[in-house]
Amino acid sequence: MAAAAAAAAVGGPQQSQPELPAPGLALDKAATAAHLKAALSRPDNRAGAEELQALLERVLSAERPLAAAAGGEEAAAAAGGGGGPGAAEEEALEWCKCLLAGGGGYDEFCAAVRAYDPAALCGLVWTANFVAYRCRTCGISPCMSLCAECFHQGDHTGHDFNMFRSQAGGACDCGDSNVMRESGFCKRHQIKSSSNIPCVPKDLLMMSEFVLPRFIFCLIQYLRDGYNEPAADVSSEKDLNKVLQLLEPQISFLEDLTKMGGAMRSVLTQVLTNQQNYKDLTSGPGENACAKKSHEKYLIALKSSGLTYPEDKLVYGIQEPSAGTSTLAVQGFAGATGTLGQVDSSDEEDQDGSQGLGKRKRVKLSSGTKDQSIMDVLKHKSFLEELLFWTIKYEFPQKMVTFLLNMLPDQEYKVAFTKTFVQHYAFIMKTLKKSHESDTMSNRIVHISVQLFSNEELARQVTEECQLLDIMVTVLLYMMESCLIKSELQDEENSLHVVVNCGEALLKNNTYWPLVSDFINILSHQSVAKRFLEDHGLLVTWMNFVSFFQGMNLNKRELNEHVEFESQTYYAAFAAELEACAQPMWGLLSHCKIRETQEYTRNVVRYCLEALQDWFDAINFVDEPAPNQVTFHLPLHRYYAMFLSKAVKCQELDLDSVLPDQEMLMKLMIHPLQIQASLAEIHSNMWVRNGLQIKGQAMTYVQSHFCNSMIDPDIYLLQVCASRLDPDYFISSVFERFKVVDLLTMASQHQNTVLDAEHERSMLEGALTFLVILLSLRLHLGMSDDEILRAEMVAQLCMNDRTHSSLLDLIPENPNPKSGIIPGSYSFESVLSAVADFKAPVFEPGGSMQQGMYTPKAEVWDQEFDPVMVILRTVYRRDVQSAMDRYTAFLKQSGKFPGNPWPPYKKRSSLHPSYKGLMRLLHCKTLHIVLFTLLYKILMDHQNLSEHVLCMVLYLIELGLENSTEDESDEETSVGGPERCHDSWFPGSNLVSNMRHFINYVRVRVPETAPEVKRDSPASTSSDNLGSLQNSGTAQVFSLVAERRKKFQEIINRSNSEANQVVRPKTSSKWSAPGSAPQLTTAILEIKESILSLLIKLHHKLSGKQNSYYPPWLDDIEILIQPEIPKYSHGDGITAVERILLKAALQSRMNKRIIEEICRKVTPPVPPKKITAAEKKTLDKEERRQKARERQQKLLAEFASRQKSFMETAMDVDSPENDIPMEITTAEPQVSEAVYDCVICGQSGPSSEDRPTGLVVLLQASSVLGQCRDNVEPKKLPITEEEQIFPWDTCAAVHDVRLSLLQRYFKDSSCLLAVSIGWEGGVYVQTCGHTLHIDCHKSYMESLRNDQVLQGFSVDKGEFTCPLCRQFANSVLPCYPGSNVENNLWQRPSNKSMQDLIKEVEELQGRPGAFPVSISSETNLSKEMESVMKDIKNTTQKKYRDYSKTPGSPDNDFLFMYSVARTNLELELIHRGGNLCSGGASTAGKRSCLNQLFHVLALHMRLYSIDSEYNPWKKLTQLVEDMNSQLGNDEQPEVPILYHDVTSLLLIQILMMPQPLHKEHFTCIVKVLFTLLYTQALAALSVKCSEEDRSAWKHTGALKKNTCDAEKSYEVLLSFIINELSKGKLYHEEGTQECVMISPIAWSPESMEKYLQDFCLPFLRITSLLQHHLFGEDLPSCQEEEEFSVLASCLGLLPAFYQTEHPFISASCLEWPVPPFDIITQWCFEIKSFTERHAEQGKALLIQESKWKLPHLLQLPENYNTIFQYYHRKTCSVCTKVPKDPAVCLVCGTFVCLKGLCCKQQSYCECVLHSQNCGAGTGIFLLINASVIIIIRGHRFCLWGSVYLDAHGEEDRDLRRGKPLYICKERYKVLEQQWISHTFDHINKRWGPHYNGL
To answer: Per-residue DSSP letters for 1581-1598?
Structure first.
């Protein structure tokens, strides 16, 4: 009864109905539910209904206390209620489940409902970070996405798809034909299954219909109660989260219901949308106090949101449509759809603050006329509406969002929900603005809206029924109005324009993003966009919105000191213009593609011009832009430009019909032109005091994602203006904007009032380059889309080779996704294959890994390289240079031009007729005067001119010649009529005729100091001249500025706007004529040149020869007929001049004649500039400096190339050819002492005891050997649950098992001599071959320690880089004094008998300190040897050193030391490919330091002399008198000699000898050991074969026993061994059938011989290697099949006279030191005694597996997706969670959590831990989510790169592009090679410490 009590406590009414059994046992619940269900299914079910109501009232109100607890007020009162909140809550849920099921089991009920699911849609909802797919081939909407399951079930082969990680969450569209094509549906959703699903039986869901409304209402009450208006403090936010946490089970319950399928969803839809239900339950003030209270809370929440409840009648006063309203219809739809509003009182006040008035006046929709209904009214009529309201209030909790989205497959719900969403749109915007977590919230909003608005049908419906567009535009406008500031552009005081403030959070954090993205989304639907373009009111409002961004983020040039704080607001500004203005514009443009849509364009253009006119008025703009200001944001201009372009290109509109008058055009061009000039200023470093950010703006403006919404429309607009305005006016405006007017004078000196001299040159270059771009760019002037794409692609490829993805990124694509040019589209690929060649990814040894690159085809360089396009598209200036360098290289390579070429002139595609006027710029006198002046100045070597200026001047002349239209005839007569002041320069305006016009005198204003003043006036020299002076009229000073003023006045007068006239003079007073500065005086210059004559002289000047130009047509008249000559298409300035003169001659006969005349007169030399002594001095200085600089460059380059070639040889792992001369001298037997060079101090000399020299070495622990397996096929990486890798067949595991088996039965100290360790964690020593004095090294380390530079290695751990080759190293291995190669004396073959040698060996081993260096006296050398030994020990972990049962026993060290030698030999063998067939000293030999290592090990081994009794040498070479004596003691026996590892014995024997070793002793040891090895081989063979084979052999062998060379016959020996061993119980275990399994084959003599050879080969290989290192003998090379015999004879096992004709028999190598049968008996006896007790183990120990194959990394699958799909959701075996960053070890396949704190052990994260366990500190991990491989080496790590590449040969790090990836076998081989050769440290450059955190 607790629940009832609780209800009472809160004031719930006590039930008057008979009490139901107390809700206790589930049984009762089930019974009650069944009873109620029966009652309700009767025809007259009123009683049942009432009973159920009562039960629900009671059960569900049990949840009330909890809400109170969350609210905090009545917590105390309520606490006494239920049995703790959780219990009551669970109880209620249990009841609901029972009632729904109507008495049955809930799970059965779920299954029953699922059976009726007509699953036509998938609709799976996912949250952020989920991996989904997008297929562009199947998608109709660009937002289409599929879950992995539907994607893999469908057929998308060959489609353009990619995998992506969801940013905001999403839902699967499979089955929805509005969003994707049906061909892409998966198997489950292909069937339209509605037909064959039976009807849902009425009684199944009957209970649900009754129970759910109460349940949902209960949830709503809960949300109402829990909500308290967040105060200023943050704690309230936590409260909201608490409420949500408590509600988790309820919402999850609803979510589960939605997953039951269609049947349940439709019930839920009914419940959520039924208005009657809502009314009944929430009808406000009822008798229930609880309900009353909840209703009050709801009203408070509405009010606090600035919303009104219509009943309050507050709103209707403002409701009459006022006069100013646009057609934002107000047909009382406050009542109809209850749309909302937002004038928070708080917002109001701050907007009407100090400057608010001006703002209010500007903003068209002031609050008085704003459509209140949109912003302020909200009436909820159904559960769905109130649920959404609370979802927004609580800032979109993920669970609620998922629930609301899970319902979407229900069509009826989808429509209702979309309408509700739209109705709450303004409210969403307000909540978003206030939110602290705007990022998360934005993602959740978009998660919902993208599902609703991507569907065209739905969007259209909502637009028609709910005025979606009006709402969106109004809401956006309102949102931006909250952060407006006064614009400071132009007229700071009187400006009425307001702009958004980019520093506000709203813009800085992109808070507007969700709303804008919705808007872009709906504009992509044609039906919606059409409504927008037809609605004039909306267009006006939208232009208003756009004008908020016009002129934002204004930059003012800092002139004095550097700006203190660099604001980064420009990011926000660019993002805002792109997202809020440009993208909607592109969306609209995509619907204006055909003639029928002309009307739309006219509308947009009309309102755009109106908005621009308003803007010019508001900022008080007349005709001059304010100086030193620039804004990059002119969205209104760009709207206008783009719609114009579209109109001409696609809609065949007449351009003039949409252009304004001349005055407006003049205003329009000013700001875009200002941007172009500012770009030049920024690149000339004139804005340097504004900090780096201004450069950032200039770059962003042209960057690929922005350029087609920014610089392209600006240039196009300028082109339009230029084509319609007076050309002289336009040209002079350009030079004035670029501030170079004063520079354009014939005088050699001038004064620039607006520009410093150092900026003049680059500003002039900028102005000319701009003109070239303006005149040659055709992007919007008639190029087709494919031509544009091709031009863009060529420009990008010319700058650099590009990968496919970077090309996709760099080609400016139309940002609107529906535009048709999607990245990766058909046209993209076809254009790419036409212009570029694919360079497959290569791996350069020692270098970095290349990606697959595209590089331009030769014919592209030849014909399509377009410098203009390159300049337009380069973000960094260095890219232009890069393109030119590549072009130069191409011309050199193809033999087209050897020198330094100029940018080629490229013919342009024809202009669209509408823009023909643009070419008038090339034919106007102003430009010709400028060109003439510049040519003259260049010829006269005036200062501040450059090759670039000349290049651009010639380019402009050539453009003019290419685009000249008039014929010769009217050229001649064009002079006439009264000429104005400057027409004494040129007669007409056509460039072709003006080129030949001679200009005699020019009057210039010069400073009085100028050289021109000093000369006599030419007038006085002769009277003729005066005549000509009058006649041609000395050209007067030509002032561009004056010209421009005049033109401007003319235009203004023409337009007769007197009103404006009054305003004009006030600005022009600022500009006095440039000559007004007092110290200027007038001089007259004699010029007597024409453009043609200047060009010809220029040719002479460039070529450095007199009269170098000879008209080519005089020799070859053909040239005039076919002018396109390849000879002229590439070249330098000389070629350009020749090409221009040829074109001039072609265009007119007069020009041709004049050129010939000029060439006939021998031209006098160009007057040299008079250089004063002082000037000469500075010039000399400059020249000297230049030369010095060049010399230095040359030296540096040479040095760099030397170093590079050295690095390549030193770093190269796999190429034996380039053996660098090693500092260690080899193979010179006559040298007495080895001489070493110290790479630090540079001295050379021998290594001595006092000053030892050492080799630079890197010690690293390695487990590579342990990874060998006995089968050739590498293991595969597991990609299913079934596949697993078990490590027990690895070499390390087998050796481990063997050692522990021995230790179980035999004496520990003896076990430790019977095997080698180091298969795992063995120490590998490698060197770069450089030596240094150990004392030099110590001081070097000191200097490194004091060096504060951040190094990639840790000096404290002894790490350093070799001072010479910079290879990574961590120790120094002392070189042993004495020669490196043993003297001849040791090598002479002696004729001592075997017996004598055996004796000598024994004696030598017994002698304790037979060392030239006495150990007792501590010398520097012995100290160093000890320290290096310490280093070697510390390189590996303790567990890899200590195998003895008694820790710290000397035997352990002994074992460790000879195992180090073994590890290095085995690894070298592996580096040689596992055998010695190739012979010679391989690369491994080059880096090997075994000789020095042996000395160090031998020195330490001899400290532990083995007790002579236990010395195995005795057992090998002497017979024991009494075999039984050994068995007397009780302690564990010694390891039988047949169980010893022979290679280990070899190393022990050799390291026990005094060094240097005699060759004869070495051979003796090998011979003795070979007999043991052979015996072991025979014993193993005998165990392997079957009983029958054994008895047969025993028999055949016994017959031959008495022949002469019995001891060299394997049959005899085998039969003897079988005989001996069968005395024990070794062969008795036949019961187990084991041996039969081992070898079902019949043994033939051949197979036996092969077995014996294979058994012995590993020993021979190691021994030969050792001999090669100790005695410097070369290894012979051989075929694989003869390896055994070659090695045997090389080791001296084979007698020299041995003939090789008949088949080789391994037994012939045997040379027994004692009678074989006796010693074998002795060896077998040891085993016999053991096998009597442990036959099984005895057998296992005899069969040693010695055939290990080379180690490999795991084999990876072809396609990366198989790895990704299996591992990215796999749970970790340690922490059973799905790791955030999963990784897999490529050596052993273990799955680990990268960086996961879950699996951390003693501060080591799992990857680091695994790298120590699996690779002794080296780990190779594949990061599943990134597709890259990461290497851990000790305490450092590096990113290695990826072995998976896409179809274009590129990595896809972090799977950002999500394209299918395929294994690159070459790269994987390289990785494996680096792993095996231990060269990670040398080859990979970027290492960093991981601090155990990986």
So the answer is: HHHHS-HHHHHHHHHHHH
Phi then psi dihedrals of residue 749, to 5 deg: -130, 150
DSSP 1310: H
- Would you list the DSSP string of 1363-1429? TTT--EE-EEEEPPSS-SS--HHHHS-----HHHHHHHHHHHHH-S---SS-SSS--HHHHHHHHHH
Q: Give the tokens for residue 1719.
A: 């010693």
User: 1060-1074 burial string, b = 16+ CB within 10 Å, else e?
Assistant: eeeeeeeeeeeeeeb
Per-residue pLDDT band at 332 (split at 50, 70, 90): very low
Q: How far apart are CA 713 and CA 812, in angstroms?
A: 13
pLDDT for 1128-1172, tens place per residue? 788 888 888 988 888 888 888 888 888 888 888 755 544 444 444
Query: Is the pLDDT reported for residue 1184 higher than 70?
Result: no
Would you say 1131 and 901 are in contact if contact means Cβ atoms under 8 Å apart? yes
Report d(CA 513, CA 429) in Å as an integer: 11
Give 360's DSSP letter: H
* Sign of the four-CA dihedral 1606, 1611, 1613, 1615: negative
User: Which SS3 state, helix, strand or coil, does residue 578 take?
Assistant: helix
| pLDDT for the residue 1886 | 85
SS3 for 921?
helix
Q: Which of 660, 644, 655, 908 is nearest to 774 (CA)?
A: 908
Q: What SS3 class is residue 1793?
A: strand
Three-state DSSP state, 1831: strand
In this structure, what token pair is assigned to residue 1050? 């003319």
Query: Residue 245 — very low, low, confident or very high, per pLDDT cuts 50/70/90?
Result: confident
- The answer to whether residues 645 and 777 touch, using CB atoms and an 8 Å cutoff, is no
Local structure of residue 1325 (DSSP, 8 states): E
Q: Average pLDDT, stretch 1520-1545?
A: 73
Q: Give one DSSP letter per residue of 513-565, joined into a string.
A: HHHHHHHHHHHTSHHHHHHHHH-HHHHHHHHHHHHTTTT-S-EE---SS--SS
The SS3 call for residue 1693 is coil
Which tokens belong to 937?
A: 């100045």
CB atoms within 10 A of CB 1604: 7
Q: Report the pLDDT value the prediction gives residue 1670, as an integer from 0 to 100.
A: 85
DSSP for 743-774, please give it.
G--SSS----SSS-HHHHHHHHHHHHHHHHHH
Query: Which residue type is seen at 204?
Result: L
1322 in helix, strand or coil?
Answer: strand
Structure token digits, residue 1213: 């792992």
Average pLDDT over residues 1634-1655: 70
Chain center to CA of 1791: 24
Rounded mean pLDDT, 1441-1457? 82
Percent of the chain with pLDDT over 90: 27
Long-range contacts of 1525-1531 (CB under 8 A, 24+ apart): 1526/1726, 1527/1729, 1531/1307
> How large is the average pLDDT for residues 581-600?
90
Spatial separation of the C-alpha atoms in residues 68 and 78, rounded to whole Å: 7
Cα–Cα distances in angstroms (integers) from residue 1125 to residues 722, 858, 957, 1112, 1141, in the given order: 33, 18, 19, 12, 14
Q: How many residues does the chain have?
A: 1894
- Per-residue 3-state assignment (H helix, E strand, C coil) for 388-426: HHHHHHCCCCHHHHHHHHHCCCCHHHHHHHHHHHHHCHH
C-beta of residue 757 within 8 angstroms of C-beta of residue 684: no
What is the rounded average pLDDT of the residues 1252-1274? 89
In a 10 Å sphere around its CB, with 0-12 CB exposed, 13-18 middle and 19+ buried, how is residue 1655 labelled? buried
Give pTM, 2 decimals. Answer: 0.82
**pLDDT grade for 23, boundaries at 50, 70 and 90:** very low
- The identity of residue 1578, as a single letter, is L
Reference 1662, options 1570, 1593, 1724; nearest CA is 1570
